[in-house]
């Protein structure tokens, strides 16, 4: 089997990793090489029998990328562009802030949601990433930055793609992240981002995992929202909000509402008031995100004054809110921009 057709070990549940007959303890040793040491070859796994290492080498691969490129930003974030076995590309971002290692990972090549302000949306949909390709981003970044994959404490699945449309692989990757023999992360530190798919939100609620759910609302009224997210007509705002109530009624945690501030599009005071109304009865935190301009974007960010005025309406109504500046502006900062500019 060639290197690119061999299945990656990262696609397996950590407690389903292979082990030689009669030596189940080798499975944990192998898991430690992969998820604790971030080994990039089977040859490096020095406490495993040489014959078994050869066997593993013949049947499996590890990180499933043919190339990783690293772009450092002035604000200390680092963007990675990965080339997959079929030549397509996807991205991840490492954000080393406040002493925490946070990674933003992709769930797809491109994205079918087509949000009008997003560079990934402009790429269109390429394909879903496999479980191994999602977990592989985390491992490749840890190896690239020189720390153990198990040191990563925060993951946001907010890079390229709509994670809930790649449900099984995204959830599979989350299971590797929280597995005690995998990356040992707390599910409370994993954020799954969605454009708002009520059916999938309800399905996720039934998993009973205390993940953070982030919903890209971007507007409180259908007309503006459909202008920003052309595919949004498939689900009404009423149904999306109802699914968030279902999420919380099923024990789900506080919901994060993502709201990208677009000049003259969704930043009027009546829209702030509309957002307050939409969120009534929900335990939610709103992130107001000044738009991060990129090459062909046809939007501009709302001004600081407008954002502060919008924020005040939410604060006065008792809505929890913060203003988030996106990172990595000087390295192709908008999600998907690296892949877009590199072809
Ligand atoms: S903002 Fe997210 S959901 Fe929308 S097109 Fe970009 S990657 Fe897809």
From TrEMBL:
Q: Which cofactor does it need?
A: [4Fe-4S] cluster
Which keywords are on file for this protein? 4Fe-4S, Cytoplasm, Disulfide bond, Iron, Iron-sulfur, Metal-binding, Methyltransferase, rRNA processing, S-adenosyl-L-methionine, Transferase, tRNA processing
Q: Localized where?
A: Cytoplasm
Q: Extract the InterPro entries matched here.
A: Aldolase_TIM, Methyltransferase_A, RlmN_N, RNA_MTrfase_RlmN, rRNA_lsu_MTrfase_RlmN/Cfr, rSAM, rSAM_sf
Q: Which domain of life is it from?
A: Bacteria
Q: So where's the catalytic machinery, residue-wise?
A: 91, 335
Q: Does the keyword Metal-binding apply?
A: yes
Which positions bind [4Fe-4S] cluster? 111, 115, 118
Give the cofactor note text.
Answer: Binds 1 [4Fe-4S] cluster. The cluster is coordinated with 3 cysteines and an exchangeable S-adenosyl-L-methionine.
Catalytic activity field:
adenosine(37) in tRNA + 2 reduced [2Fe-2S]-[ferredoxin] + 2 S-adenosyl-L-methionine = 2-methyladenosine(37) in tRNA + 5'-deoxyadenosine + L-methionine + 2 oxidized [2Fe-2S]-[ferredoxin] + S-adenosyl-L-homocysteine; adenosine(2503) in 23S rRNA + 2 reduced [2Fe-2S]-[ferredoxin] + 2 S-adenosyl-L-methionine = 2-methyladenosine(2503) in 23S rRNA + 5'-deoxyadenosine + L-methionine + 2 oxidized [2Fe-2S]-[ferredoxin] + S-adenosyl-L-homocysteine
Might you name a Gene Ontology BP term for this protein? tRNA methylation
Main enzyme class: transferase
One of its Pfam families is Radical_SAM
Record GO cellular component, one term: cytoplasm
Q: Which residues bind S-adenosyl-L-methionine?
A: 161-162, 193, 216-218, 292
Any GO molecular function: rRNA binding
Q: What residue spans carry the region label Disordered?
A: 1-21
Q: What is its EC number?
A: 2.1.1.192
Identify its protein family.
Belongs to the radical SAM superfamily. RlmN family.
The protein's role, per its UniProt record:
Specifically methylates position 2 of adenine 2503 in 23S rRNA and position 2 of adenine 37 in tRNAs.
Additional detail? Reaction proceeds by a ping-pong mechanism involving intermediate methylation of a conserved cysteine residue.
Q: Per its record, how is this protein called by name?
A: Probable dual-specificity RNA methyltransferase RlmN
Origin organism is: uncultured Truepera sp
């Amino acid at each position: 089997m060639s290197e690119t057709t061999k299945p990656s070990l990262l696609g397996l549940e950590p407690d389903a990793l292979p082990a030689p007959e009669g030596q189940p303890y080798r499975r944990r040793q192998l898991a430690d090489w992969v998820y604790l040491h971030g080994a990039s070859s089977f040859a490096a796994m020095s406490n495993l029998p040489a014959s078994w290492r050869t066997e593993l080498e013949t049947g499996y691969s590890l990180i499933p990328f043919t190339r990783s490129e690293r772009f450092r930003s002035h604000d200390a974030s680092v963007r990675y562009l990965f080339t997959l076995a079929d030549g397509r590309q996807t991205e991840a971002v490492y954000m080393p802030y406040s002493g925490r290692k946070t990674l933003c990972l992709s769930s797809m090549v491109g994205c079918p949601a087509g949000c009008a302000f997003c560079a990934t949306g402009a790429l269109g949909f390429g394909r879903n990433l496999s479980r191994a390709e999602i977990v592989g981003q985390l491992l490749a970044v840890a190896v690239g930055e020189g720390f153990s994959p198990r040191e990563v404490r925060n993951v946001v699945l907010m890079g390229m793609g709509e994670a809930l449309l790649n449900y099984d692989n995204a959830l599979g990757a989350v299971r590797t992240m929280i597995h005690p023999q995998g990356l040992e992360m707390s599910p409370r530190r994993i954020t799954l981002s969605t454009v708002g798919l009520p059916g999938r939100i309800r399905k996720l609620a039934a998993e009973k995992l205390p993940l953070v759910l982030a919903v890209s609302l971007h507007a409180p009224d259908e007309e503006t929202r459909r202008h920003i997210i052309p595919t949004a007509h498939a689900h009404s705002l009423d149904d999306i909000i109802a699914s968030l109530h279902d999420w919380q009624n099923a024990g789900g945690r506080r919901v994060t509402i993502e709201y990208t501030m677009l000049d003259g599009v969704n930043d009027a005071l009546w829209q702030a008031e509309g957002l307050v109304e939409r969120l009534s009865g929900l335990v939610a935190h709103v992130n107001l995100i000044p738009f991060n301009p990129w090459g062909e974007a046809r939007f501009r960010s709302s001004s600081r004054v407008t954002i502060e005025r919008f924020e005040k309406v939410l604060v006065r109504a008792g809505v929890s809110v913060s203003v988030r500046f996106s990172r990595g502006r000087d390295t192709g900062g908008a999600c998907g921009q690296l892949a877009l500019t590199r072809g």
